[in-house]
């Protein structure tokens, strides 16, 4: 368990530190970047939020709030609180046209910064729980690496970076956005900012 939670945080930190992110879109308070490597596409959404970083951290690390701003989360329940910094959630997503609804079993690991220059971190990855086997109603999907890094800008503002490493399985959801406009990503980011503020 300790290894899994460490590797969850480490994978997100490693993803965030990769060179060669390409910026693909900017709005007032939102920047969208992508990074391609083989068949893995990574997405980074940077949001400027007018609340203190510790508050953003507490709101974003509790995934039961997620469906309030992210329409890709239909339901989200805590399966297991491993300790105060790790929880395992069961998430369902609404169906896309012609697809079954998807479900996920994810580990969410949170870390406070050790130094002021470091970000708050909320890392997400799929895990396997024997108590929650795949069900025929859902297409069990996997999150390789996703999460948030939250940097403090001042006492009343912070920068929230959302990361998601996407494999071909999640592509139907993003393909439409990345080929046309990244509208759905921007909409979700705007909803996230609105929820936080």
Automatic annotation (TrEMBL):
Database matches in SMART domains: START
Gene Ontology molecular-function annotations: lipid binding
PROSITE patterns referenced in this protein's UniProt entry, alphabetically: START
GO annotations of cellular component type: cytoplasm
One Pfam family linked to the record: START
InterPro entries, per the entry: START-like_dom_sf, START_lipid-bd_dom, START_lipid_transfer
Residues of the START domain: 18-166
Domain of life: Eukaryota
Name used for this protein in its record: Acyl-coenzyme A thioesterase 12
Native species: Pygoscelis adeliae (Adelie penguin)
